[in-house]
Each structure stands twice: as C-alpha cells, then as structure tokens.
Amino acid sequence: MTPRFFVAAFAALLPVAALAQGGAPPIETVTVNASALVGVWKVDVPAYGSVNFSFHTTWGPMQGNFCRIEQAQNGLSANCFPGPGREGKVTVEESHFHMAWGTMMARAYIDASMSSPTAFDGHIGVKLSGLAIENPASSHGEKMILSAIKSDPGGKGPLLTRLLTALSGGTSDNGAIDKAPLVQLPTAAELRELGALDSVIYLGASPKPLPPNAKEPAQPEFYRVYDVEFAAGHRLCGLHQRDDGMVDALRCV
C-alpha cells in the first residue's frame, strides 16, 4: 500500500532584508510587520502529494486555495479552505518564514520569501520522520483586497447566508442540505460565539479535493468560497449546490 499525504492550501509570509556590500548596487528590501499579514490570502499549492516507502514523491497539479491569517495569542495562525482542517502555526525568524501543521512524525510546511508586503513565493513540502520532501514547483500567494470585491459571481451568497443563519438558530435547514461526506456543518455554539453575521464576500472557486488516481473527473470549480464576516470574527466557508438544488458540500474554517 502506498501511504499518501494530502496537501491543502495555507499562507506563508515573511520579511526579506538584504544589505548591499562593497561596491554592489543597492538591493531592494521588503519590510513586513505581522499586523499587515492578517487577512485573506490566495495561495497556489498542489492538489495532493503521495509518497511511497522508497520516498518517491508525486505532486498533484497546482491550484489556488484560500487562507485566513490571524493574530493568535502566541503569534500568527492560519486556517485554509478546504484543508487541512486544523490551525497552522506561523513563525518568522530573520528572513525566513515557516508555516506548518501536523506532528513530528508527519508535518506539512511552506517556506517562502516576500516579493512585496502583500505577495510571496516559496515552496511547499512535507517532513516525514525528520526527512523533508519539497515540491519543486513554486507556490505563489497574494493577499486579497476584500473591500474591492463588490459583486457575487459565485451566486451562492444568499444561500450561504440563509444556511448559516438557520444553523446559528439551531436548525440545519435539512430541506436544502444533503447528508454527504463533504457536508461538515458548523455548530450553533460555534456560530453564536462569532456573533451576528455582518457580510458575505465572494472570494472565488476552489477544486473538489480528490486523491491521486481518482476515478471521477476533476472539478476545478467545485466549491464557491466566501469570506463570512461576523461581529466577533470571520470564517472562510465553501459550498457546492447540485443541479437539483441540494447542497452536497459545505464547510467553514
């Protein structure tokens, strides 16, 4: 059997400092503070990764995912849609930025350098039992300017608002939501802790997560992903609605 790891999107941000030496021409520097990194980012990452027992690695095609970077109690944290389903830890040391999640035995990460205060380029990798395996393809990320997004080309904003409002009130609007594996509903307690729903902002489309060698065809625009602003926080929520009107995928991170 071939063990597999599935790489989800996450953000990587770091300041880069360079000093001119001798007669060399000055090098442009990029200065970034932590507060400027807080927000929603679109990050290119591989759809999946797989590794066999001889550590031969296969990476899936690059795709755009969305991450929310926040100031946590002990530094920066990141949560990404549609995965990995847990909070990532972000650290900055001199000119090196590192974001990772997992355990010492299996950890996914991204290392990058800032090309501007709102963009980075780096590489995603996985560390298995201390052995680092890095994707040679570059991962690019850019911070999104949400105030410039006025329309909803995804067309699911009103539906998502209705569903989240029902869930916060303790009902799941079962007439519209299918009991499918990709339906992972937030609880009423989680939504109430975030406070009143203020706005729903369309971010873009996201692919359906598929393992390597999946028999079903790829769906690069499966999810419609939104930034949902509440009175006391925000979440990235994605959903998919079938042609019959039923929602067969819904998740918030």
Structure characteristics:
disordered N terminus, 3 helices, mainly beta, 253 residues, 17 strands, globular, five-stranded mixed sheet, 47% strand
Count of helical stretches: 3
User: What is the oligomeric state here?
Assistant: single chain
Strand content: over 45%
H/E element order: EHEEEEEEEEEEEHEHEEEE
Largest beta sheet: what is the strand line-up?
2-5-6-7-8-9-10-12
Q: Can you count the beta strands?
A: 17
N- and C-termini, Cα separation: 31 Å
Rg calc: 19 Å
General form: globular
Query: Which class do the helix and strand fractions yield?
Result: mainly beta
Name the helicity range: under 10%
What is the average of the pLDDT values?
81
Task: Detail the topology: elements first, then pairings.
Elements: E1 4-5, H1 34-37, E2 39-46, E3 49-51, E4 57-59, E5 62-72, E6 75-81, E7 88-93, E8 96-102, E9 106-116, E10 119-128, E11 131-134, E12 139-143, H2 157-168, E13 177-184, H3 188-194, E14 197-206, E15 223-230, E16 233-241, E17 247-252
Parallel strand pairs: 13-17
Antiparallel strand pairs: 1-3, 2-5, 2-12, 3-4, 5-6, 6-7, 7-8, 8-9, 9-10, 10-11, 10-12, 14-15, 15-16, 16-17
Give a quick precis of the structure.
The protein is mainly beta. The chain has 3 helices and 17 strands.
Would you kindly provide a written description of the structure presented here, covering whatever features stand out?
The structure is a single chain. The chain has about 250 residues and is mainly β. Helix content is about 10%, strand content about 45%. The chain is built from three helices and 17 strands. The strands form three sheets. Strands 2-5-6-7-8-9-10-12 form an eight-stranded antiparallel beta barrel. The longest helix has 12 residues, at about 155-170. The protein is globular, with a radius of gyration of 19 Å.
